[in-house]
UniProtKB/TrEMBL annotation:
This is Spermidine/putrescine import ATP-binding protein PotA. Keywords: ATP-binding, Cell membrane, Hydrolase, Membrane, Nucleotide-binding, Translocase, Transport. It comes from Flavimaricola marinus. The lineage of its organism: Bacteria, Pseudomonadati, Pseudomonadota, Alphaproteobacteria, Rhodobacterales. The gene is potA_3. Belongs to the ABC transporter superfamily. Spermidine/putrescine importer (TC 3.A.1.11.1) family. SMART domains: AAA (SM00382). The complex is composed of two ATP-binding proteins (PotA), two transmembrane proteins (PotB and PotC) and a solute-binding protein (PotD). InterPro entries: AAA+_ATPase, ABC_SmlMolc_Importer, ABC_transporter-like_ATP-bd, ABC_transporter-like_CS, Mo/tungstate-bd_C_term_dom, P-loop_NTPase, PotA-like, Transp-assoc_OB_typ2. One of its GO terms (cellular component) is ATP-binding cassette (ABC) transporter complex.
Length: 361
């Protein structure tokens, strides 16, 4: 597999500030790839170096096999959609989209056909004559997309494109962006600080911290098998416990403080696991409350409810367990006939060795 975009040892300094600290990255043609991380981790800087708006301090960037050093942004096979959309309010929707073609040698007729195609693609067919200043946030976003897509770039770079939209609109646009990306087959690189957005949309995600990539994987692997505590903390909710690993031949066991001892299935044992202290992650949805009248074959431990947060479809419980340092969070579906427990309720918590995520201590 040859990568469409390939970065090796990329470093970026702003004066003395070290913004990118050795980025190695291969992005495949047709991939929906996300750069995810907290504010200031360098994801926008990385996107801008791919676009050609920032130079590299060191390392190499190749797109489609060609070294990009010295190649200006407008000569790269990339196009960027900005957070602010940069829609010209005095131009119509069609004129805004056609702006992308201003340097093209297409005839007027070809241009107007291309504009129509781009507007149809983003669900704005028939909106060409509209005034741009009267558009909703979601419509402006679509115009910006159409303007970027009309140039048929190999790579579309998206810098937090949905962050200005309300929650409902954002969720709708996420689904539409995925559909659009599959339809046009262009490689999308999305910058976002919203982990849910990255999980929903991406084929693969690079999680960045302080100028470095902490982990790069498909969404399911990232969620199920984070390789460090900071990745585990950044993606979804995670409880952390302490434990001690022991090995005996091929079997790896872990003694989890407050819960007990369990033999780990091979799939739960990260490479390079050695005996000794570990940090253990447990997702809230992989624990469960054992409600009165229910039974289980799985392991249970006594607990006391210390906090209850009701979400309608779900309830999040914090519970205290003897020997566990901090409260554990458990998410439960509010099924028919299942009560919502009160703070102070004595209950039992079900746990399973398959949900233990071993992390470096
Ligand atoms: P955010 O989500 O807040 O946009 P980010 O992960 O995209 O964050 P960047 O915008 O890439 O982060 O910035 C990374 C670091 O580099 C930040 O500390 C920022 O202040 C710094 N930085 C970015 N651009 C410049 C610049 N032109 N000059 C100096 N420092 C900069």
């Amino acid at each position: 597999m040859t990568a469409l975009i390939s970065l090796r040892g990329v470093q970026k300094y702003y004066g003395t500030y070290h913004a990118l600290r050795g980025i190695d990255l291969d992005i495949k043609a047709g991939e929906f790839f996300s750069l995810l991380g907290p504010s200031g981790c360098g994801k926008t800087t990385l996107l801008r170096t791919i676009a050609g708006f920032e130079g590299l301090s060191d390392g190499t960037l190749k797109i489609d096999g060609k070294d990009m050093s010295g190649v200006p942004a407008n000569l790269r096979p990339t196009n960027m959609v900005f957070q602010s959309y940069a829609i010209f309010p005095h131009l119509s929707v069609a004129e805004n989209v056609a702006f992308g073609l201003r340097k093209s040698s297409m005839s007027k007729k070809e241009k107007s056909a291309a504009v129509k195609e781009a507007l149809d693609m983003v669900g704005l067919g028939g909106f060409g004559g509209r005034a741009s200043h009267a558009l909703s946030g979601g419509q402006r976003q679509r115009v910006a997309l159409a303007r970027a897509l009309i140039l048929k770039p190999k790579v579309l770079l998206l810098d937090e494109p949905l962050s200005a939209l309300d929650k409902k609109m954002r969720e709708q646009m996420q689904v539409e962006l995925i559909r659009l990306q599959r339809q046009v087959g262009i490689t999308f690189i999305l910058v976002t600080h919203d982990q849910e957005e990255a999980l929903v949309m991406s084929d693969r995600i690079a999680v960045m911290f302080e100028g470095e990539i902490g982990q790069m994987d498909d969404p399911e692997t990232l969620y199920r098998a984070p390789n460090s505590r900071r990745v585990a903390e950044f993606i979804g909710k995670m409880n952390f416990l302490t434990g001690v690993v022991t090995t005996d031949g091929g079997t790896v066991s872990v003694d989890v403080a407050g819960l007990g001892r369990a033999e780990l299935p091979a799939s739960q044992v990260p490479q390079g696991t050695v005996p000794g202290k570990v940090s253990i992650g447990i997702r809230p949805e992989t624990l469960a409350i054992l409600f009165d009248g229910e039974t289980t074959q799985r392991r249970v431990v006594d607990a006391t409810v210390s906090e209850v947060v009701y979400y309608g479809d779900m309830t999040y419980y914090d519970v205290r367990i003897a020997g566990v340092e901090s409260a554990l969070t458990i998410s439960m579906k509010n099924l028919i006939g299942r009560p919502v427990l009160d703070v102070g309720a004595k209950t039992k918590v079900i746990w399973d060795e398959r949900s233990l995520v071993l992390l470096p201590a």
